[in-house]
Amino acid sequence: MSESPLARESYRGLSAAEFFYRNREIAGFSNPVRALYQTVRELVENSLDATELHGILPDLKVFIELGDKPDRVKVRVEDNGVGIPYDEIPNVFGRVFYGSKYVIKQSRGVFGLGIKMAVLYAQITTGTPIYVMSATPYSPVIAEYKLMIDISKNRPIILHERLRRKNRKWHGTIVELTIEGNWPQARRRVEEYIRRTAIITPYANIYFKSPDSELIFKRLTKVMPPPPKEAKPHPYGVDVEMLKMLIRSADKSLTLKDFISSTFEGVGEGIASNFMKWCKLNPYKKLSKLTLDDIVKLAKFMKEYPNWRRPRPLSLSPIGEDLLRRGIKEILGAEYVAAVTRKPSSYGGNPFVVEVALAWGGKIQPSDKPLLFRFANKIPLLYDEGADVSRKVIDNLDWSNYKVKFPAPLAVLVHVCSTKLPFKGVGKEAIADIPEIEKEISNALKECGRRLKAHITMVEKIHEKARRKVHFSKYIGEVARALSEITGLPSEKFADKLLKILSEELGEEVKVSEVH
Amino acid sequence: MSESPLARESYRGLSAAEFFYRNREIAGFSNPVRALYQTVRELVENSLDATELHGILPDLKVFIELGDKPDRVKVRVEDNGVGIPYDEIPNVFGRVFYGSKYVIKQSRGVFGLGIKMAVLYAQITTGTPIYVMSATPYSPVIAEYKLMIDISKNRPIILHERLRRKNRKWHGTIVELTIEGNWPQARRRVEEYIRRTAIITPYANIYFKSPDSELIFKRLTKVMPPPPKEAKPHPYGVDVEMLKMLIRSADKSLTLKDFISSTFEGVGEGIASNFMKWCKLNPYKKLSKLTLDDIVKLAKFMKEYPNWRRPRPLSLSPIGEDLLRRGIKEILGAEYVAAVTRKPSSYGGNPFVVEVALAWGGKIQPSDKPLLFRFANKIPLLYDEGADVSRKVIDNLDWSNYKVKFPAPLAVLVHVCSTKLPFKGVGKEAIADIPEIEKEISNALKECGRRLKAHITMVEKIHEKARRKVHFSKYIGEVARALSEITGLPSEKFADKLLKILSEELGEEVKVSEVH
Question: How far is B41 from chain A (nearest CA, A)?
């Protein structure tokens, strides 16, 4: 293996599966603790997407079992979702960069990568395949597979395949994986993840069983937010490459104007006409006649046109202020909660909604900076807080403007939902600092902050009144006795009157916990 | 676009280029500030790898120019490296998951991905190709290309190609890209990145020119650390998949024993024999006869065998305690620096070395927790500190054990080098918390901490002495006069004698800045 210093380097290509096999840390599979947590997450999030996004009330079962050796951990997740067509199962679990996630709507899964990483990790660490059982609602069969991944070819290896007739109405997916994991150390995070998931999906039944614990979350409501709809791309999010791809898959006999009015979010006949007039391209040119130069110009004009409609949030499914407030009160036992769901905004043509809640007092322990609870498309984020845009915004805010002096009993919940969350890594743990998102979080915090300030001010006043009342009360007996001696009337009468005056003056004592 | 709730989902595959095009944030291309920073980094790091790893003293030129619009930024980097063979240039710049980085040795580049991300980003944001000019040392030609990436096929598009005869001895690579960037906001980080790069590569000439600044770093030494050698895989890092790949590319007529003694790091005849005896597999079985079951067993035994040699650090190139100490003194103007280069260690068969320096006092401003300067394979890391293993270890250390009470004037430099750095993202900004690395950082910190404690103790003693000296000095005049009056002798004499006694008693006052 000796090298001459200026030897020609050797070059080669990798398959996508080999790339992620070599770099599993970037998907969160960095050690047996984190890998176990990540595996649970990926399976649970797929199950929630397979139910909730299709209007099915989720029934999830999650099992953690230890294997013959203590570091071999079996993870099994069962759901009642839409299932996967049997002929797609091998690719969905056995081919990196293959999936159903590549559409424009809010979902927990974004990369279509997590489950393949879990399969790779099982394969590398324990040499075992993934077991999958699945049926779609209208399929006559239930499919069972055992699968591994051919890493150098990025193709599924089918070790076992069985289709059997479906006798009952069951649909859903059951997945089972055995990985090298460290359950004792992962336990706290995994349970916390399940707990926070339950809080943000109160319409789900979640049953969780581990060697050390059993958690049962019964659904609190049967009302689900309407499932997000698939959106078209927004003109502001268009670039040359996207345009090329859209044109490639369109009917080539369409005119430019018809293509625009039929392809993009919030663009109808009228807006398309106005845009064509503004950009001065020929609206009747057929797609088949467009040159590369036309496409480059078109992309530029689409980015610059000032009169597109804002992206609509139909493809989004935020939690809502009410649920947010209830959620955080339940988690934290706070004295006061202010919650805000901001109006939809967008970055690069992707709609997003920011929701923020500030929780104050009660059982919250005072700390030197606000506690932070992060959610992204209803996924709880537990790792890498320091790299998240929310932490940055919170730490940069001047909290003294809102009468918060640290150490203070303050917690912040931030939920960002979008058709395209700008995660910093494929492990989905931190959101990047996109300026538009930063600004929305900041505005939401300020809005909540102002309410919190009003609350703190009110509480201060109440305390001040209460303090004065106590202060005066001490003297009432004495004053009443003095008046009694002077007038010869009974002192109780004076005391009552004085108390009445005092109450009128200072207002009724209001219990802090009733203030909202 | 209406959907029936239980509609069959549609599935499809993505090319690797399309995946990263859609998810550019995970490679650090999240906004025009960060993307500009990331582009500079990728080009500079490729240039340093192309020189230093081949024993060439680096001469780098970096130019930032603003285009016709203020948000169009041209980045140009020139180096005197080994160049790229002309027939490899299109794939190296135009195909995701293709490169020369997939070997086992320390290098700045690890994913072979950054430059393609920069090409994609230029293409998406400004519609312009990358310009490349390159020549290898022994090639008779200089090649010039303009390239883009066919995103849906993950293949280079050659817009311009020219080979011309090389008249002079030049070799190296020049790369030029025009991207959408925000120079005013990126400036501080880019310059800081260049500055820290210069500090950790004192044998490089780096010239940096931007619209607002010109930075010139002349090399301080012509002595370069020996270039890291390419290593074989270590048996502890083996898994079933790796074994399969190694066997696939080996001579099938080899016996198992010969395969093992020729393929793995630190394994010769003797160790291979001992291992074969221990694992009880047939050492004379030909590779062509191995079953999958044999391979699974072999992988398991290789992981469990207790007597492999530790991975050697020949494939690594740490900075060394001396350079580390000089570097940090120069950056920070510290009063005291303790530096440690730990012995090589390994995780999952990958050798790594941790280097730590603690800098104390001098010009370092006191802060509530230690300032942190992170380097990974000689790359300065400026973003995502909160997600980095070093921050975690530093924050968990009980600094009071080392007489450090915060706020304190303390800075920590951590350099991790490895043939495989477990970065958390392809943007290469934070190192994951691999337990072995965590432990090494912790031990290095403690080692430095003990030295710092000795220093602080010594300084305290000196100050105490100095304080006592000052204290006594005040009374010397008076005592001398009193003695003079009693004895009738001149008071100066007594004063001199008393001062002499004092100095002997308390030792010479030592200047703090001289203590090392």
Answer: 17
